[in-house]
Every structure is written in structure tokens, then in C-alpha cells.
Amino acid sequence: MKKMMKKLLATGLTVTMMAAMAGCGGNTQTASTEKSKTESTKEGSGELTPVTVYAINDPQMSAAYYVALDQGYFEEEGLDVTTEVVASGPDLASYVANGSNVIAMGTMYNLYGWLENNVPMKAVVPVCNIGGTQSCAIREGLEITEDNVSELEGLTVGMVPGTEAYLAIEKLYEEYGLNKDSLTFVNLSASEQVAALTSGQIDIMVCWEPFVTNAVLQGAHYLCSGTKNYVADPENGKDVNYCQIYTSLEASEDVIENNPEILEKMIVALNKGTDFINDNRTEAISILAPIYEMDEDLLEIIMSENDYTTVVDDNFIEACQSVAEFAVEEEVTTTVFTAEDYADWSILESVLPEKVTAK
């Protein structure tokens, strides 16, 4: 990552971001309120089945989805997909609230909140492990290493309340025996955090990409992410497992029960999109950069920290359990939801059985 950062800085890159680049919260963007369509065409008609998917323009949420659209994978499976762009994960709530006839791309954390409010939605296939892009940066002038790590206490932190990125800094403070209760938290949106960190109004931002890298390009330093500890290794980051957070394709239970064939086709197309990203990263970045209105070098940095996968393994289950416990800690939910509550893997198992390996 440091090598790519030097390249970006050398070219004088001005980071361009959509207001919608808010994987786990943040800014507002207009989106249509048209209800999801999942009416199947008559068998044998040769027509494509119309489907509307609520998606967020964010490489953590929708990269495989947009690649599948670009490559015609949904059409290959007989689907005519319409995208309803939603500003952020929390904004999805109003679109799924009726719990009927809905297909959406969201985080497991969002899903737990919906379940808490009795919205009958379930994950049907993972799409990305985004732990590496849930990050923290520290302002310019604060050079923290393991030799002076105690100076992390008593600082001011900007954060969207309840963001999953907090898991990363929480684990960092636990690792070094620091008192996280010494921190002063300020409620700031993602873009506000960048401005406040750059101006010195806050000391740390707890956020997601591309906002953290945007702050680093303006002089801040990486502190940690779900997968890196920059206190231990300021240059490259020491590999850690502070948090793993998944995004997934989620559907209301009536779609799962009444239109499983649509979800079968969606899953196959998304899996093709995922394989394309992993096998043809440069071309995938070229496809996605205009959609996300991002420089390709910056998008390469962000996507390199994500793990694009459709596999349900023990790691996925453990990660979801950890986030479910965090949701209770943050009072987003009153119940630690389990796989039986939040997922239905039966359709994934029917079309790609090798993807489900969890015990």
C-alpha cells in the first residue's frame, strides 16, 4: 500500500469521491423509491425476467454486482436487472422496511438492524470481506510507534456512531492495554472527518475507504484497519485480525420462498463477477472507476484491501458472530443473531454447493 501511496502523492492526485461512497454510513444521495420487481416471466417465453436491486456505489458493497452488469452475466442468466442506487447502508433501511419483494446489497451489520426491527430479510450469498477497508487514520504531527503508544490515550476521535470500523481501533487499544474510555468521541460524517482531521480539530478518524486514504493523501497517517496495525509497522502495517466484516446479497423471505430461481441466477452471475475481479483485477478496476468516479490508482489501493468471495466458510460464520456481538454492544440489536436468523444458504448450495463449507 505504501508504494502505491507514494505513486499517488507523486502524481499530485486530487481524490474525487461520490457523495454515495459511504459503505457503512454517511452522506445522502437521491434514489428512486420504486419497489423491487421480481415477477418471473412465463416459462419458455424467451423474455428476460425483470429484477430491481438496491445497491450502493461503493467497492466494498457492489463491485462484483457492477462487473456482472458490465460483462452481461445477468443477461446470460436470463435477468433484466435494474439498479436503484442508495446512498449508504443505513439509508437502505427505508427501502427494505416493508420486508416484501426486496433484493439488496448490504452489510451483515445492516441486516442485523433490520432483523431487530422484524424485517424478514436474509443473506443468500456473501460478496466481500471488507475488514481491510474499515480503517483509522491519525492526524499529521502525531507519530505513534510502539515506543510511545501510550500517547494514543486522551485523544479526540471523529466517527459515525455505530460504524463497524470502531472494531479495529477497539482491538488496537486492547492489544496495547490502552484505556479506550479516555477517548473523546465526536459525531462526524465521513467527509467531515477528513476535513476535521486535516485541520487538527480531531486526532483520529474511524471510518471506511476511500475516506481514510483521502485523509492520508492530505498528510495524515494510517493507524490501523481490520487487517493492519501501523503502530507496530508504520511503513507496511503488521498483519492482524482485528475485524472481518462481510457484505452480502440479501433478499426478503417472500423472494426466497416464491422466486428462488431469480436468486439462483443472481448468485451465479455474482459469482462470475467475483471471479472476474479476482482473475482480471486491472480490467475490473477500469470498469469500476467511472462508476465510482474514482482514480484507478486509488481504487486499486482500496480493492487490494478487500477480499471478494462468495464462500460461506467457518471464517465467515465467526466474523458474523463477532459483528452480531458488536451490534448488541452498540445497542443496535438486543439479540446476538445466529446464522439461522440471518441467512438462508439453501439456494447457494443448490447452484454452487462447493461454496458452502462451514461446519
Overall morphology:
globular
Main sheet, how many strands, which sense, barrel?
Answer: 5 strands, mixed
Overall domain count: 2
Q: What is the end-to-end distance?
A: 34 Å
Give the strand line-up of the largest sheet: 7-6-8-5-9
Regions with pLDDT < 50 over 5+ consecutive residues? 6-44
How many β-strand stretches?
Answer: 13
**Mean pLDDT reading:** 88
Helix content: 25-40%
CATH class of the largest domain: Alpha Beta
| H/I helix tally | 15
Radius of gyration: 20 Å
Q: H/E order of the elements?
A: HEHHEHEHEEEHEHEHEEEEHHHHEHHH
CATH topology of the largest domain: D-Maltodextrin-Binding Protein, domain 2
Class derived from helix and strand content: alpha/beta
- Quote the beta fraction: 15-25%
What are the defining features of this structure?
single chain, 359 residues, D-Maltodextrin-Binding Protein, domain 2, 4-stranded antiparallel sheet, 18% strand, globular
Description:
This protein is α/β, with parallel strands linked by helices and 359 residues long. It folds into two domains: 227 residues, 3-Layer(aba) Sandwich (D-Maltodextrin-Binding Protein, domain 2), CATH 3.40.190; 108 residues, Periplasmic binding protein-like II (D-Maltodextrin-Binding Protein, domain 2, 3-Layer(aba) Sandwich), CATH 3.40.190.10. The chain contains 15 helices and 13 strands. The protein has a five-stranded mixed sheet with strand order 7-6-8-5-9. A four-stranded antiparallel sheet has the order 3-12-4-13. The chain has a two-stranded parallel sheet with strand order 1-2. The chain is globular. 49% of the residues are buried.
